[in-house]
Amino acid sequence: MDDREINKFVGMKIKEFRKNKKLTQQDLADLVGVKNSAISNYEQGTRIPKRDFLFRVANALGVSIDEFFPIQNEETSSTLSEINKISSQLEEPRQKIVLNTATNQLDEQNQEKKKKSKIVSIKNEQEKFDLADLVDDSKVDWDKWVSFDGRPLTDEVKEAMKKALGKELEDK
Description:
mainly alpha, 8 helices
């Protein structure tokens, strides 16, 4: 479905929900703070509704903003659907709080992913050891302390890293 078809679908849904509530275009326009002609243009699909407008319309019509869009993926998260349903009923200042919270959560998630994607992490907070100890299996438990992207290293990778580290230490 291209953008033009989506706009027509959204307009059709606005009209359907408006009529189900027995509202005229003028009634809906008054409820959401736009002109009657704007509602007409949205319903015909000749004007593209912005997100804040759709939230106001969803709130005025008592529906979830999700209901304005065709389902493109049946695996749509029920949690996401519930968030949208609830947030569409909130007043705009509270919707902004939800948006800011979601944005902050996404930022935190991305930061956590960056931290987890370290190439090599060495976990041993209680003991300190020299990097040269990493080439000696009797001094460092690789399986316990060293991982790649949060997963244990294969024996081949461990040996390659020991060789590379040993060579690096010899060159210094």
